[in-house]
């Protein structure tokens, strides 16, 4: 479709300033067709910019896409949309219409052989958690907070942070085992900022106060992006992949171009080394004539293509690793298996760390009377679950459900195992300083814009990735150079990062 003219203006969506009429519209090449790349592409095209998206896979959507198995649809885990950002909500409603659902979340932790509501409810805790354990945990947590009053240095790693905020008992029986299970590393090797970013309450007292306010007054406190007290979230009928599909359809309707099966092989710079001028792809094709190169592919993969002679390639990039994930998608001949949307399983004796039951989402992702479950098993290439045959993965997952008296293997009607090498950035000690130095070095190429979970090596959610696009696109419209996303998302919108 040809691009619109002055008499046929682009319309719809959140208002973004048009390109300066005194200059021709900026041309943008976007590498990576996940939700960050697609939202950037759509917003830029609406602003009148010329945009091409290059995706290595034969389909767009990335990890926020949807996976079909027979007559079932699955997400790679529960990709909830949780935001009060008015601009983002306007975009979501416009793209999805009546298919944008509001869901009341029910999640749980499987701990001490019980399903414990999460966010925690006082009555539920008193009924299901062993009293001696509760008393010991509370005493440990209080002692840890008292010790913290005289501590002269900040915690050196995740283990110190959790022990200092929640005490030894909760670390030894919950946080420690769960962390090792998910990340495959000792908690002492993970950065303390991982805890402060992913554990919204900084003490057991704060968590109890929030839980009581929620139960007694219906007050949800979600100052932090990953606050567990948030009960309502948005979802998309047909799975979260439909959001990416809607973005792609609208982008192409406006004349944008998506090139599938284009794996980036190299980036050529101009003589000064300050601007990217050409992309080389694995199939021998090239792309030129762009003003900005937006990268949403993994930073450790992208950086050596742009700055191959930088000393940081050897000293820093090798230290930026990802945690892999094995997903087991299983369709059951019953309407629901769990009593919750998803359940966390911290125990090391259970192979999976989280299970999502899409039957509770009421999003039309399975035939009538059936539901699909996504099992998540953390594993990197060479590790146990990664190398295990698919049939054995299915057997482990269904055997555990049978042991928990939740479902029978005889009820399985469809299944598939998928392995993802780069699911989560590994936030090891000192990772933030490493990332900052790499991004500083990359900014020497002034028309390169890294974005998204993979692109800036930040553990962020789908809604936050779209907020990055909302922040960056107007700056490309204004033809800024060395654009860096420097802000952190909150439930209320995008706030300045401290």
Automatic annotation (TrEMBL):
Limits of the Amine oxidase domain: 36-422
Q: Provide GO CC annotations from the record.
A: cytosol
In terms of InterPro entries, this protein maps to: Amino_oxidase (IPR002937), FAD/NAD-bd_sf (IPR036188)
The record's listing under SUPFAM superfamilies reads: FAD/NAD(P)-binding domain
Q: Name one Pfam family in it.
A: Amino_oxidase
Please name the GO terms that the record assigns under molecular function: flavin adenine dinucleotide binding; oxidoreductase activity; UDP-galactopyranose mutase activity
Q: Which domain of life is it from?
A: Bacteria
Name of the protein this chain belongs to: Amine oxidase domain-containing protein
């Amino acid at each position: 479709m040809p691009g619109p003219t002055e008499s046929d203006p682009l319309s719809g969506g959140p208002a973004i300033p048009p390109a300066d009429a005194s200059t021709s519209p900026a041309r943008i090449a976007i590498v990576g067709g996940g939700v960050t790349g697609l939202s950037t592409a759509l917003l830029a095209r609406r602003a009148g910019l010329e945009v091409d998206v290059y995706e290595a896979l034969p389909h767009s959507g990335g990890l926020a896409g949807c996976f079909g198995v027979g007559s079932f649809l699955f997400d790679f885990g529960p990709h909830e949309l949780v935001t009060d950002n008015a601009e983002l909500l306007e975009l979501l409603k416009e793209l999805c219409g009546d298919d944008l659902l509001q869901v009341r979340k029910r999640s749980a932790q499987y701990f001490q052989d019980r399903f414990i509501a999460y966010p925690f409810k006082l009555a539920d805790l008193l009924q299901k958690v062993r009293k001696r354990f509760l008393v010991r945990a509370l005493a440990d947590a209080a002692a840890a907070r008292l010790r913290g009053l005289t501590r002269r240095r900040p915690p050196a790693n995740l283990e110190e942070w959790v022990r200092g905020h929640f005490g030894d008992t909760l670390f030894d029986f919950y946080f420690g085992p769960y962390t090792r299970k998910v990340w495959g590393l000792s908690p002492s090797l993970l950065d303390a900022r991982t805890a402060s970013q992913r554990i919204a309450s900084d003490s057991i007292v704060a968590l109890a106060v929030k839980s009581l306010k929620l139960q007694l007054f219906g007050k949800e406190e979600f100052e932090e992006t990953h606050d567990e007290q948030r009960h309502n979230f948005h979802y998309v009928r047909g799975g979260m992949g439909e959001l990416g599909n809607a973005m792609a359809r609208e982008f192409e309707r406006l004349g944008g171009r998506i090139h599938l099966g284009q794996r980036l092989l190299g980036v050529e710079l101009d003589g000064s080394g300050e601007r990217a001028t050409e992309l080389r792809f694995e199939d021998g094709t090239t792309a030129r004539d762009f003003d900005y190169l937006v990268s949403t592919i993994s930073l450790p993969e992208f950086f050596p293509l742009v700055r191959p002679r930088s000393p940081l390639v050897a000293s820093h990039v090798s230290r930026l690793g990802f945690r892999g994930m094995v997903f087991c998608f299983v369709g059951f001949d019953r309407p629901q298996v769990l009593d919750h949307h998803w359940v966390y399983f911290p125990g090391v004796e259970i192979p999976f760390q989280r299970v999502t039951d899409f039957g509770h989402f009421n999003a039309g992702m399975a035939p009538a009377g059936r539901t699909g479950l996504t099992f998540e098993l953390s594993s990197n290439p060479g590790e146990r679950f990664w190398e295990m045959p698919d049939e054995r993965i299915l057997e482990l997952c269904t055997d555990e459900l049978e042991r928990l008296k939740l479902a029978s293997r005889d009820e399985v009607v469809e299944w598939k195992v998928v392995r993802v090498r780069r699911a989560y950035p590994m936030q090891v000690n000192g990772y933030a300083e490493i990332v900052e130095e790499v991004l500083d070095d990359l900014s020497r190429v002034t028309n390169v814009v890294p974005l998204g979970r993979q692109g800036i090596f930040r553990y962020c959610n789908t809604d936050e990735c779209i907020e990055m696009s909302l922040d960056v696109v107007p700056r490309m419209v204004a033809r800024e150079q060395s654009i860096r996303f420097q802000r952190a998302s909150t439930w209320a919108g995008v706030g300045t990062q401290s």
